[in-house]
Amino acid sequence: MEHSNKDFSEALSDLIKEKKIKLRSLAAKTSLDYSYFSKLTRRKGAPPIETLINISNALDVAPEYFIEYRIHKLNEVLKNNPEIIEEVLTFAYDMERRQKLKIADKEAEFNE
């Protein structure tokens, strides 16, 4: 699987199960505390980007596997190129209108 659209905790849990990795082993590979991984697999939200990259490397997956990383990169591109924001939004709305892209519910709360 190239990437996941699940939130970080769920995507991480799936990878750990799929790769049959013990949390203690993952902790050793990342120099992070074992209990930290236990918390990451149970809570909403994602760790800092540097930590996400560290975990990705330890799991032998690209950071882009996690949707939070892809959103982070998109945010960086838009911050550095504000002139393309309108074009990107027009594209997204057009894709939504043609039912090729689902836009998040405006009423739902986003947890960082």
Mind explaining what this structure looks like?
The protein contains 6 helices and no strands. 58% of the residues lie in helices and 0% in strands. Helix 2 crosses helix 3 (34-40). The protein has a single domain, classed as lambda repressor-like DNA-binding domains (434 Repressor (Amino-terminal Domain)), CATH 1.10.260.40. The chain is elongated. It is mainly alpha-helical and 112 residues long.
Strand percentage, roughly?
Answer: under 5%
Q: According to CATH, what is the topology? A: 434 Repressor (Amino-terminal Domain)
The string of secondary-structure elements, in order, is HHHHHH
How many domains would you count in the coordinates? 1
Question: Helix segment count?
Answer: 6
- Find the CATH superfamily: lambda repressor-like DNA-binding domains
Helix content: 55-70%
Q: Which assembly state applies to the chains in this document?
A: single chain
Number of strands: 0
CATH architecture: Orthogonal Bundle
Task: State the main characteristics.
single chain, about 110 residues, mainly alpha, 434 Repressor (Amino-terminal Domain), elongated
